[in-house]
Every structure is written in structure tokens, then in C-alpha cells.
Design brief:
six-stranded mixed β-sheet, ATP hydrolysis activity, ABC_transporter-like_ATP-bd, transport, ABC transporter ATP-binding protein, 13 strands, Alpha-Beta Plaits, ABC_transporter-like_CS
């Protein structure tokens, strides 16, 4: 399978700030590649370097097997991108915007082709309405239609669901799945909405402060024999102190929303519950969780439970 993106030791410094720090990763043909990190982690900076909007301080980038700096024009002809909120001409209709960007791309097009693009993103019925009347979600979908107008092999979406309502988020999620499954496009999508990425991504990269933390498929990253347990009691502070002094101390993870998180195997949960009862701890809930959000918090936050409960 072809490597669509190969990034090696990529670094970007802005004076005293290292926004991207020795980052390496690969995106395979056909991937929906989830690029995850907290705000300010370096996702957008990396994407801007991939699109040659800013130059790297050091490192190399290859797309479709070619060096990006040496083959910039040929490579970018095969890439479509939406960076944050797409800029459209509000006084033009969706169709007129798409027609204009098709002309700027220098491609041959027909009215039927452009209408098919708008149909794909769910805007055919609003094709001749001015874009200034569109919701943010509709503008995002139009931006994706523009990114697809030259039929690229690679689609790059930077935070495509930012500012959208639940329906808009669902529309973008379904569109990403359509691009991958039906149109066979490779998609790199950055986001901090972990539950959405979990539903579409085939492979994942998590970065923090510009550095790669983990990369792989969900199956590779999540140990099915382990689970995150969220514990709530009537007195979490006292419970935490008892846990720290017991054999369960090694299972403690970071605090979330004033709950206690532990990581253990599922077959240990009855023993944990029995131990809590023996310690006269009034348990409100003991819930196993094993989601991308839990994994993300685990690898980006570290063990901060002591400070979280004692501050």
C-alpha cells in the first residue's frame, strides 16, 4: 500500500517557541487519519507545513512518494484542503462559488459536474442561494466541495467541525465516511472532538506540545484487556487517600470532573468493588470506560490525580 504522507523529524520554531518538535508519522493510502491534540498542540502548524503555507525549520515531508519542497506544484494538484473556517464569497451563490474556484484550478468542468459536487455535500437544493445566508455547517460543506472540485487523491481537513451544532457535526462525519468508503479518498482530519474522530478514523496520531505521543490503529492503541474505571463516592478525597495506601495505588490515573479514574482489567472490577465496601466507602457509581477520550486524557495528562484532589 502506498504511503500518501511521510513526515520525518519535522520541526517548526517561532523564535523561542517550538510549535512542532521532531515529529514523524505516515499516512497510508485509504486511511482516514485522525490527527489529535489539544488546542495549541501543533496540529494546525503541521498542516500548514504540509500545504507549504509555512516553511519548516527542519525535517522532511514526502507526499505520494515525492519530496514536497522539490515537487510542490505537482503534489498540491493532488491535494484538497479546508483550513479551519473556509472563506467564500458571501454575495455569490454556492454554485457560483464552486464555478469560480473550478476556473481558478484550471480544470474542465460542466454544470452537471458542479451540481453533482453540491449534491454530494448536501447543498444541491441551496445551489443558487447566496452563501451569506448559509449556516456555518453549510459553509463547511461548501468548503469541502471546493476542496474536491479538482478530484484530489488526498483531503486535509483542519478542525472541520469547529463551531458546528450537533447536526452539522453529524453531516461532516457522514461526509468524511462517504469520501473514504465511496470515493476512496485518503483523508487526514485534525480535531480535538475525540468522540467524532473515534467514529471515522482508521488510524490515529496523538501529539502534545508538538511531540508525537502515540500512533497506530485503535486496536493497536487500546489494550482490550484493560479498561478505565470512573469511580464516584460520597467522599472522594478520603477514598483517594485509602486507594493511595493500598494495592490499588498502581491503578490510579488522572482525575476527571472530580471523579477518580483507575486502570485495571475487567475481571478485577468485582474485587475493587468488594474492597471499597470493606473500607466502608459509600460508592455512588463505578463505571468502566474505554473510549478514545479516556485514552487521550491518559496519554496527554499524565498522573495528576494527587494535585487534582489536594489543591
Amino acid at each position: 500500500m502506498q504511503e500518501i504522507i511521510k513526515v520525518t523529524s519535522l520541526t517548526k520554531q517561532f523564535r523561542n517557541l517550538t510549535a512542532v518538535d521532531d515529529l514523524s508519522f505516515t499516512v497510508q493510502e485509504g486511511d482516514v487519519y485522525g490527527f489529535l491534540g489539544q488546542n495549541g498542540a501543533g496540529k494546525s502548524t503541521t498542516i500548514r507545513m504540509l500545504l507549504t503555507l509555512i516553511a519548516p525549520t527542519k525535517g522532511s515531508m514526502e507526499l505520494f512518494g515525492y519530496n514536497l519542497q522539490q515537487h510542490r506544484i505537482e503534489i498540491l494538484r493532488q491535494v484538497g484542503a479546508v483550513i479551519e473556517k473556509p472563506d467564500m464569497y458571501g454575495y455569490l451563490s454556492a454554485y457560483e462559488n464552486l464555478k469560480l474556484f473550478a476556473k481558478l484550478s484550471g480544470i474542465k468542468y460542466s454544470q452537471q459536474t458542479l451540481m453533482q459536487q453540491l449534491e454530494m455535500v448536501g447543498l444541491a437544493e441551496r445551489a443558487h442561494d447566496k452563501v451569506k445566508t448559509f449556516s456555518q455547517g453549510m459553509k463547511q460543506r461548501l468548503g469541502i466541495a471546493v476542496a474536491l472540485v479538482h478530484d484530489p487523491k488526498l483531503i486535509i481537513l483542519d478542525e472541520p467541525t469547529n463551531g458546528l451544532d450537533p447536526q452539522g457535526i453529524a453531516d461532516i462525519r457522514n461526509l468524511i465516511l462517504h469520501l473514504s468508503r465511496e470515493l476512496k479518498k485518503t483523508v487526514l482530519v485534525s480535531s480535538h472532538l475525540l468522540s467524532e474522530i473515534e467514529q471515522v478514523a482508521t488510524r490515529l496520531l496523538i501529539i502534545d506540545k508538538g511531540k508525537k505521543l502515540v500512533e497506530g490503529t485503535s486496536a493497536e492503541l487500546f489494550d482490550p484487556s484493560q479498561t478505565i474505571v470512573e469511580l464516584d463516592t460520597l467522599n472522594n478525597t478520603a477514598c483517594l487517600q485509602l486507594l493511595q495506601q493500598s494495592e490499588w495505588n498502581k491503578a490510579l490515573q488522572q482525575q476527571r470532573n472530580h471523579s477518580i479514574l483507575l486502570k485495571t482489567s475487567r475481571d478485577q472490577l468485582p474485587h475493587l468493588h468488594k474492597w471499597l465496601v470493606q473500607q466502608n466507602i459509600d460508592v455512588i457509581s463505578l463505571q468502566p470506560r474505554h473510549t478514545l477520550e479516556d485514552f487521550f486524557l491518559q496519554v496527554t495528562s499524565g498522573k495528576q490525580y494527587v494535585e487534582a484532589f489536594t489543591d
